[in-house]
Amino acid sequence: MSVSVVGHSNPDTDSVAAAISFACYLNATGTDAVACMQIDAANLNPESKTVLAKFGMAAPATLTDAAGKKLALVDFSDIGQGPANLDKADIIAIVDHHKIGDITTNGPILFNAQPVGCSCTVLYDMYKNNNVALPKDVAGVMLCAILSDTVNFKSPTCTEADKVAVAALKGIAGVADTDALFMDMLKAKSSIDGVPIKDLIYRDYKDFDMKGNKIGIGQLELASLDQVAAIRDELYGALKSIKADGRHSVLFMLTDVVKEGTELVVVSDDVAIIEKAFKGKVDGTSMWIDGMMSRKKQTVPPLQAAFGC
Known about the structure:
Layout: E1 3-6, H1 13-28, E2 33-37, H2 46-54, E3 61-62, E4 70-74, E5 90-96, E6 110-113, H3 119-129, H4 136-149, H5 160-173, H6 178-189, H7 197-201, E7 205-210, E8 213-222, H8 232-243, E9 249-256, E10 261-268, H9 271-278, E11 286-290, H10 295-306
Parallel strand pairs: 1-2, 1-4, 2-3, 4-5, 5-6, 8-9
Antiparallel strand pairs: 7-8, 9-10, 10-11
Helix pairs in contact: 1-3, 1-4, 2-6, 3-4, 4-5, 9-10
């Protein structure tokens, strides 16, 4: 049985690129594998579509039900972020760069989680350390994933290992100007014209369990907050609707990449606990948090602390 390599729900570029690159790695080292994602290609986010087109790669196959399948997971280890019936799958490997989640296995597996800015940095390390040849197109999508996840090295999640990986991958992929590449990706990622509001919210969205409270956190990276000025009321209404579906809180990060900060839109049963987490005050429906760029490092941990996780 082939191994299906799959990333988290609502896949971002790292989740897509990591599935592609880990499947390639497994095939090169003797394990039959196929890259997958939990959506169909038509619903892939604009940045990932741009990246795949640039390097001439097809989107991963669609996988929404894990029952009876042999899986390798990339870019997550939380049950809530996996495909349906994940508990009925045989998980043989996890490659990640987040906190260790709540997935358990019946036996030992390959588990490689490192405190770096991107799963593709971990995978680059695996290719390098095991002398596995890295194809040019695969190196290209891995490069883009690292630039995206580290916000072109501006994110506090960025490490020296990410920079080393980018330096090597750009050479393999034949990319001369990573700043220009990142700006092309940002233009695609921040494009909102004609996109339904809920599609924008779910473009990069994850649910988390915090002491029995379901907390949704989405993020939209923008060149300027002016891009969403005309849709703020509609955006807030959609967040309220999502929150009403059994969630304690829904937070939406409008991240200004140029100003290097986030306007955090808050819908919550207890606004005070959100204010406590981020040491600020919600003004109307949101609060500005200077320097906030990363959901993983700057949004989730303070919330977990506030909820007593």
